[in-house]
Structures are given as C-alpha cells and as structure tokens.
Amino acid sequence: MFEQLKIQRMSMGTIYKLLAIGTTFSLVPFSTLMGVLSLFGAHTITWDGKHLIGYDGLIASPFIGLFLSGFITLFLGTLCTIGLWLYSLWRPVTLRIEAVDNIDIDRLIRESEAALAERD
Q: Is-contact 38 57, C-beta < 8 A?
C-alpha cells in the first residue's frame, strides 16, 4: 500500500541520488545493447566522430553510458534542485511512497534454523 508523505524540502543529495540511479540503470543497459549491436556491424556507437564497430564498440558502450549518465545527472540534478526549491517556497510536495518494512532479523534467523533442522 502506498502512503502519502508531505515534505517541504528535499536535500540536494537525495535529488542527485534519485537521478543518478534512474539514469544509470537505464542508460548503461541501453548503451550496452547498442554496443552488442555494433559487435554485429551496426553503426550505433560513435566517439569523436568515428563509428566504433566490433569489439571496440562493445567495450566502449558501457563507459559511454556511464559518461552520459553522469553528465545528465549533474545537469538535470542542478535544474531539479533549483526547480524544487522554488516550488517549496509555494507549497509542500506530496509524495506517494511504499514504506519498507523493518526486517526482524531474529525472526529470520529462527525461521532459517527451523528450515535447516527440518531438512536434516
């Protein structure tokens, strides 16, 4: 179940963290896919105006994805930070979140010990 959470401001680190996670886990797999396609001769990876084909494209593609992810995170993170700061002057932000349950370590240990005892 989702809960509503009203916040007045978010830290810059939180904004950058969300953008970094989102861009990294989308751009790196996509650029790696483009590297796999370049392995088969497609002109999908370009660096310094030259197409990287074959193993060069496959090796360079994840690094290109990381570079793009970092650049986009820094650029959009700064813009989002300014925009959310301006919005927070007007009204609070309402987020819909799904809370993480606290894990009961003792219960997990007891259950795993009981499962091991049954198996033996």
A: yes
- Looking at per-residue pLDDT, the higher value among 15 and 2 belongs to 15
Q: SS3 letters for the chain? A: CCEEEEECCCCHHHHHHHHHHHHHHHHHHHHHHHHHHHHCCCCCEEECCEEECCHHHHHHHHHHHHHHHHHHHHHHHHHHHHHHHHHHHHCCEEEEECCCCCCCHHHHHHHHHHHHHHHC
- Residue 5, φ and ψ in degrees, nearest 5: -130, 120
Cα–Cα distance, 40 to 58 (Å, whole number): 10
CA distance 52 to 68: 17
pTM score, whole prediction: 0.73
User: Which residue in the block uniquely carries the two structure tokens 């005892």?
Assistant: 117
